[in-house]
Specification:
- Helix content is 65%, strand content 10%.
- The protein is an alpha/beta fold.
- It folds into 3 domains: 320 residues, Up-down Bundle (ABC transporter transmembrane region fold); 148 residues, P-loop containing nucleotide triphosphate hydrolases (Rossmann fold), CATH 3.40.50; 72 residues, P-loop containing nucleotide triphosphate hydrolases (Rossmann fold, 3-Layer(aba) Sandwich).
- The strands form 2 sheets. The chain has a 6-stranded mixed sheet, sandwiched between helices. A 4-stranded antiparallel sheet has the order 2-1-4-5, covered by helices on one side.
- Helix 3 packs antiparallel against helix 5, helix 6 packs antiparallel against helix 8 and helix 6 packs parallel to helix 9.
- It starts with 14 loop residues before the first helix and ends with a helix.
């Protein structure tokens, strides 16, 4: 079976662009970062002082002096040695404590910004996205921010600072070759590590891609658990998931093998450099140009440099991995919101609630128009219904009014104000939508109703539930309003989910309503009850009803019949029946179906019922 997937477009980001994106979030905490840098410098200076103290101790013990002096000098140096060791640890911990808020708060703010930006992106993006992959990109990117800051500021910068200071000490106190060889060794180490890491980073990218795809496949499969079961495709889903995991495994193995190659090369460079320097130091001691303490100090300096250098290879790899992980997350921020406020946008003022579609034309793609020259008006407080076959463009009208998309041509106004000139927040606050496909949060029934008005109290929530004919059902549940509805509301029936959608829209109490197949999931008895509630709620509101069942819109002041993106008929129910057009034919067919349903229910014929 062939599978189809839609991926986010690859960005053009590079490491420096990713770092530049991060910098503004850090500058907010420049004071803390400055103090942390001071503690970092003090820690490194104390650390560099340790080999110097060790040299003086060895030289002091190596000189023949009177017994009292022999005890006094090394003892003071030993105490200084211990204090330097303690100071190194103390300043490092102070640095970590001061910097913690800056790193964690920056990571939090960036993750929050990405989350907000995802909500600002258009419906088009969210229809194309892969939830599991995007979720994993954000998770990895957020985690990598803290790691990157820690590695850059607490590992790479202090190590570079220490190397420069040590090279300076060696240059001042010994032959120039000590400093030159140390510098060459460190340079070779950096170049080799950079080149090999750049080469092997592609394996990390392949791992991330396969991991995101595997996560997407797993989430899609689990969300559609019932569909998988209906078609007996457990084995197919397992194979699909395993294919992505196989790709991840292959990339992971290549990453590990290349890591071994990197480590071996780093070990050779450090080993050769250290051996050459120790030979030079030993020759200096033999020649009398260096003391035994100098030999110990050089050895301690080199070990002190090469140990973090050894870890620096790992740190450099992790920095590259962190930048790679952050790249996709920051790439989301590079996506521009298709629908956004214009610079001159002002809050929408709804005085009456009159809605007008004026010569509206719309196409999702340039070569395929969905709506053509749509003209109609919904007077304030009136109800207008749109009916038609599937794919005629009915739901698109609702999406345009809510500004999920911008009209290609023409305009939509509310009380004379072009909705493109109104702020999105004010426009959407004025419109309540009961969608055809209701998706609930994996929380309680009460939470899902309260979502229409987050600050509503329990009495308001229960009143909205009563108006939606839902309260009696809720109180019959063991946990009542605290009942968990499950992922996407899977623990509830389609009708129960739609009643919750109606209840939270009632709670929102907007001046304009959009009912998009609001009773499509209800049986006839429930539909009649909900229809009376909806009529009561819509009584003083401007209402756009999108319907398939014509029986639900016979009370509309005007019914629009949409065919192939054009309004073919308009009028009241009786007028359209008298016109013997497409509406009359739809009505006849639906009436025949309803009669067949009633006959089947009367005789209890399961064959006829299943056929219906």
């Amino acid at each position: 079976m062939r599978t189809f997937q839609t991926e986010l477009p690859a960005g053009n980001r590079n490491d420096w662009k990713t770092i530049r994106t991060l910098i503004p979030y850090l500058l907010e905490y420049r004071g803390r970062i400055g103090i942390a840098m001071l503690f970092l410098a003090l820690a490194k200076l104390a650390n560099i002082g340790v080999p110097v103290a060790l040299k003086l101790i060895v030289d002091g013990l190596d000189v023949t002096t009177p017994g009292a002096q022999m005890v006094t000098v090394p003892l003071s140096l030993l105490i200084a040695y211990g204090l330097l060791r303690f100071s190194t640890s103390l300043f490092q911990e102070l640095r970590n404590a001061v910097f913690a808020k800056a790193s964690q708060r920056s990571a939090r703010k960036i993750a929050l910004r990405v989350f907000q930006h995802l909500h600002e992106l258009s419906l088009r993006f969210h229809l194309d996205r892969q939830t599991g992959g995007v979720s994993r990109d954000i998770e990895r990117g957020s985690r990598s921010i803290t790691q990157l800051l820690h590695f850059l500021i607490f590992s790479i910068l202090p190590t570079a600072f220490e190397i420069l200071v040590v090279c300076g000490v060696l240059l001042v106190n010994f032959e120039i070759w000590f400093s030159v060889i140390t510098f060459i060794t460190v340079s070779l180490y950096f170049v080799y590590t950079y080149k090999v890491t750049e080469w092997r980073i592609k394996f990390r990218v392949q791992m991330n891609t396969a991991d995101s795809k595997a996560n997407t496949a797993a989430i899609d499969s689990l969300i559609n658990y019932e569909t998988v079961k209906y078609f007996g495709n457990e084995a197919f889903e397992t194979r699909r998931y395993d294919q992505h995991m196989h790709n991840w495994e292959r990339a992971s193995i290549r990453s590990q093998v290349s890591l071994a190659l990197l480590n071996v090369g780093q070990g050779v460079i450090i080993g050769v450099g250290l051996t050459i320097l120790m030979i030079l130091a030993a020759r200096g001691v033999i020649a009398g140009t260096m003391t035994l303490g100098d030999f110990v100090m050089v050895n301690a300096f080199l070990i002190q440099i090469y140990i973090p250098l050894n870890f620096l290879g790992t740190i450099f790899r992790e920095v590259k991995h962190s930048l790679t992980d952050m790249e996709k997350m920051f790439g989301l921020l590079d996506l521009e919101a298709e629908i956004q406020d214009t610079p001159s946008a002002t809050p929408l003022i709804v005085s009456r609630g009159e809605v007008v579609f004026n010569n509206v034309t719309f196409s999702y793609q340039a070569d395929r128009s969905i709506l053509h020259d749509i003209n109609f008006e919904i007077p304030a407080g009136h109800k207008v219904a749109v009916v038609g076959s599937s794919g005629a463009g009915k739901t698109t009208l609702a999406r345009l009014l809510f500004r999920f998309y911008e009209v290609t041509d023409g305009r939509i106004t509310i009380d004379g104000q072009d909705i493109r000139e109104a702020t999105l927040d004010s426009l959407r606050a004025a419109i309540g939508v009961v969608p055809q496909d209701t998706v609930l949060f994996n929380d309680t029934v009460g939470y899902n109703i309260q979502y229409g008005k987050p600050d509503a109290d329990r009495a308001e929530i229960e009143e909205a539930a009563r108006l939606a004919y839902l309260h009696d059902f809720i109180v019959s549940l063991p946990q009542g309003y605290d009942t968990i509805v499950g992922e996407r509301g899977l623990k509830l029936s389609g009708g129960e989910k739609q009643r919750i959608a109606i209840a939270r829209t009632i709670l929102k109490n907007p001046p304009i309503l959009i009912l998009d197949e609001a009773t499509s999931q209800l049986d006839s008895k429930s539909e009649q009850a909900i229809q009376s509630a909806l009529r009561e709620v819509a009584m003083n509101r401007t209402t756009l009803v999108i319907a398939h069942r014509l029986s639900t819109v016979i009370d509309a002041e005007q019914i629009l019949v949409l065919e192939d993106g054009r309004i073919s008929e308009r009028g009241r129910h009786r007028e359209l029946l008298a016109g013997h057009g497409h509406y009359a034919e739809m009505w006849r067919l639906q009436q025949e179906q309803r009669e067949l349903e009633h006959e089947a229910e009367a005789i209890g014929d399961p064959v006829i019922l299943s056929a219906i």
